[in-house]
């Protein structure tokens, strides 16, 4: 990780290179997570399931807190971070459900117009 060797400028630069690599991985993983949650949102909208699942969230938070403790990461921070992401996912799911309902309305209206004598 650290370059060491008594050159603070080189050490800072090596550490920042590692940080940049980690941030790149974080963004890739977040994008992958949002791709999965988008598919979940579409499935829920199609089958009229609620956008949020508080029981699942509680299980995830308990699991993440344990993982954080084992990794020497502050569990409160890990919980806040996951909650921040989940709130955004639920916002997306609500938007998908609204779009789905609007499309269903339009489809119903055009079917009714076509059925007119
Ligand atoms: C992705 C889901 O939808 C919501 C978002 C969650 C998440 O981002 O992990 C978890 C539970 C739900 O409130 C799900 O139900 O699995």
Automatic annotation (TrEMBL):
The keyword tRNA processing does not apply. Keywords: Isomerase. InterPro entries: Chorismate_II_sf (IPR036263), Chorismate_mutase-related (IPR051331), CM_bact (IPR010951), CM_dom_sf (IPR036979), CM_II_prokaryot (IPR002701). Residues 6-97 form the Chorismate mutase domain. It comes from the Bacteria. Its EC number is 5.4.99.5. It is an enzyme of class 5 (isomerase). This is chorismate mutase. It comes from Acetobacter musti.
